[in-house]
Amino acid sequence: MTIRVLLADDQTLIRAGFRVLVDRAPDLEVVGEATNGREAVELAAATRADVILMDIRMPELDGIEATRLITEDEDLAGVRVLILTTFELDENVLRAGASGFLSKSVEPADLQEAIRVVAGGEALLSPKATRGLIARFLDESTPGPLPSPVRLDGLTERERETMALVAAGLSNDEIGERLYVSPLTAKTHVNRAMMKLSARDRAQLVVFAYQSGLVRAGDLPVQ
């Protein structure tokens, strides 16, 4: 199955470079190019791309707001957004619903694999990157959990444990190793937690883990 990719960047040379890298993989295909956030939203609806490579700083509508509009549109529920930028990221990436982020200096093979990961419904959030984002997403000087309507009453103890490991940036394979279960079982626990909490993807599950007080920024492992 070919993964359909939409490029959103206001710089022609950067789009051209990413097009070459994407089209070089036999299972990836560029289906459109947007020069600003407004075009990205329109082309997301027109192409129904599986993954959008989204720049943050673009004219007319920036990548964060474009991402928010796309991820909040129920008709585009299957579209994933992967942020690509040279700038420091903040909590707005998570709030907007992006499934992950990468530096524009990423290696070609890593970019291709990142697209596959995000297309598969997983979040591309490493423990180190998650620590930085969550530290700003939550005010660590504020004691106690962040006030939020997110409640975990419907989750089993194993689903809570799995959710905490997702928030630490672990993959299904790593969660399986930690819990002594198969990667498929780990994925099942993750999916059930997402379903019960109506989370769009793993990135939103990370946000919910912190909003509910299940984990705190200081709980993340240093890597």
Automatic annotation (TrEMBL):
Record has Phosphoprotein as a keyword: yes
Transcription regulation found in the keyword field: yes
InterPro entries registered for this protein in UniProt: CheY-like_superfamily (IPR011006), NreC/VraR/RcsB-like_REC (IPR058245), Sig_transdc_resp-reg_C-effctor (IPR016032), Sig_transdc_resp-reg_receiver (IPR001789), Tscrpt_reg_LuxR_C (IPR000792), WalR-like (IPR039420)
Record-annotated Response regulatory domain positions: 4-119
Domain HTH luxR-type: start-end pairs: 148-213
Matches recorded under Pfam families: GerE, Response_reg
Annotated positions of the 4-aspartylphosphate modification: D55
Keywords: DNA-binding, Phosphoprotein, Transcription, Transcription regulation
Protein name per the record: Response regulator
Organism this protein belongs to: Streptomyces kaempferi
